[in-house]
Design a protein that fits this description.
Helix 7 packs across helix 9. This protein has 3 domains: about 40 residues, no CATH class; about 90 residues; about 120 residues, no CATH class. The chain is mainly alpha-helical and about 270 residues long. The protein has a two-stranded antiparallel sheet with strand order 1-2. Helices cover about 60% and strands about 5% of the residues. It is built from 10 helices and 2 strands; from the N terminus they run ααααααββαααα.
Length: about 270
């Protein structure tokens, strides 16, 4: 519709409060209600990705999805090994396996077939991931990404492009708290008198940014000493999942200021000495 000159608005249904006095609703009354909110200037709206970069953003989302599916099968294979053999194999080593490498590894034919299928799927997803990333790498140079993101430990061109396109205009987020909340990296709880009474909408936000910063956290704790120490301190007090999410939260806060202030990443400032 924008091609024909119509100013399109994307209403945000999560923030719209319906008038409780309405006795019946239909398409006409809903449209009238939304138009009245727009006339008053109080219609909550969402961000519409420009058409020029929308397809690349969707391809980056597909990459994240493929990568997540591959991780799922890697974890499944690791679980099969730990339950049936007294051994553990790193994810990087599992990615290099072929189905023929499993000959004689399992005595039970059912376990052997299950493991072979996992490795076959991992190989297939790895191939698909390489094809998608090859196209993304050729297309990234055509868009304006936040170049300062490339100074962040663990962020390459692909992740920088994903964060840039999913974040869009950083000025949309008035505070760093708004941004990390949009990235689904904050707790969503309902507390009364110091006691937890339930949870609010913890899925409100951008799941693709959540996945992206989880990847950033994974790489940063491998290559950044400050991030690794932060992760280990958290891990000493809680489990791996919570420690990983805490590090992802930290990295999202750091990236917010990198994009907002156009400054290079400083791990000492983010984590301390």
């Amino acid at each position: 519709m924008t091609d024909h000159g119509y100013p399109v608005k994307l209403a945000n249904p999560v923030e719209i409060q319906q008038y409780n006095g309405i006795k019946h609703t239909n398409d006409m009354s809903d449209a009238e209600f939304l138009s009245e909110l727009l006339r008053l200037g109080i219609l909550p709206t969402g961000y519409i990705c420009p058409k020029e970069t929308r397809h690349l953003r969707d391809l980056l989302r597909k990459r994240l999805l493929i990568n997540r599916q591959r991780v799922t099968h890697i974890l499944s294979f690791q679980g099969t090994l730990q339950r049936n053999l007294p051994s553990f194999m790193k994810a990087q080593d599992i990615k290099k396996l072929e189905e023929g490498d499993l000959d004689g590894m399992f005595d039970d034919p059912h376990l052997s077939l299950s493991a072979r299928k996992s490795i076959g799927i991992i190989q297939f997803l790895s191939k698909q991931l390489k094809e998608v990333e090859a196209v993304i790498n050729r297309s990234v140079s055509k868009i304006d990404i936040h170049s300062d993101l490339l100074t962040v430990t663990g962020v390459g061109k692909t992740l920088a492009a994903a964060i840039t396109l999913e974040t869009a205009e950083i000025s949309r987020f008035h505070t760093v708290g708004n941004y990390v909340s949009y990235c689904r990296l904050v707790n969503s709880s309902r507390i009364s008198n110091g006691k937890k009474k339930g949870e609010n909408n913890r899925k409100n936000g951008n799941k693709y940014l959540s996945w992206a910063y989880t990847e950033v956290a994974q790489f940063s704790r491998q290559w950044c000493p400050q991030a690794k120490r932060f992760y280990q301190r958290k891990l000493a007090k809680t489990n791996k999942m919570v420690a990983q999410r805490a590090l992802a939260h930290k990295m999202a806060r750091a990236c917010y200021y990198v994009m907002k202030d156009h400054v290079p990443y400083d791990p000492v400032r983010a984590f301390g000495h």
